[in-house]
Give the backbone structure.
Amino acid sequence: MASPDHVLVLDKDGVQLTVEDSVATVTLTNPAKRNAQSPALWRALAEAGRALPGSVRVVVLRGEGQSFSAGLDRQAFTPEGFDGEPSFIDLARGSDAELDAVIAEYQEAFTWWRRNDIISIAAVQGHAIGAGFQLALACDLRVVAEDVQFAMRETSLGLVPDLTGTHPLVSLVGYARALEICATGRFVHAAEAERTGLANLVVPVAELGGAVQDLTSALLAAPRDAVVETKALLRGASGRTYEDQRTAERAAQARRLRDLAGIAD
C-alpha cells in the first residue's frame, strides 16, 4: 500500500510504481517467488517507465522480501510456459525476425532507466541473479546490502545475457572480468561488487532503505537541468574522443550559462 504522501500510479503483474514529488519508487512485489521475472512483469516495467510523471528526477528500484530478484521464472522453460504467453520453446520455433522482435520487446523493460532526465538507483539485497542482475545493471547507480549475491547464470543454462546487461557490465568491471563472471556464472558478493564498481555503496541490510534515501536527497540537491546535462555528458563520454568530449562540455556549459542568465539560444 502506498502511504498518503505517495501516489500509486501502477500496480500490476508484480510491479508497483509510486510517486512522491520528484521521487518515484518501482517495487517488485512477488517476494514469495523471490521476485522472479516473466514477460508480463517486463511489460509492466516498461509501462512504469512510460507512466513516469515529468516531475520525477530520481527513480528507486527495489524488491520486496529477502531477494531483489532471483532472475527469470523457470516456468518459462517448461513446455506450457506462462498462462496466455508463448513458451520459450514456442518462441524458438519462430523466424529470426519474430524472435528478434520478441526479445526487443522484453528489453524495453531494461532500457528506460538510463534516460537523461532521471537518475535511477537500484536498492539490491539478497539474490540478484540473471535477469535480476541485469535489471540492477540497467540502473545508473546501485546501493547494495552486505548480503547481496550477483550472478549471471544465463551462460550456465546454455543462453546468453540478452536483457541489456552486457554493456554496463563491461563498462563497470572491464572485458576480462565481465567474461569471467558470465562464463562461470559464479556469485559476486558485496566486497567484490564495491571494489570493482558494480556497487556505489555497501551497507548493512537494515540500513539499505536509509542509505538510498540519503543518496536520493543528495542527488536532488543540485538544479535539475545541471544534473541532466552532466548525465548526458558522462553517458556519451565513452563514445567520444577526448577532443569531442571537450567540445561537448563547452556546448553544454554554454547552454547552462545562457539559461542561468535568462538568454535564449
Observations:
- The mean pLDDT is 95.
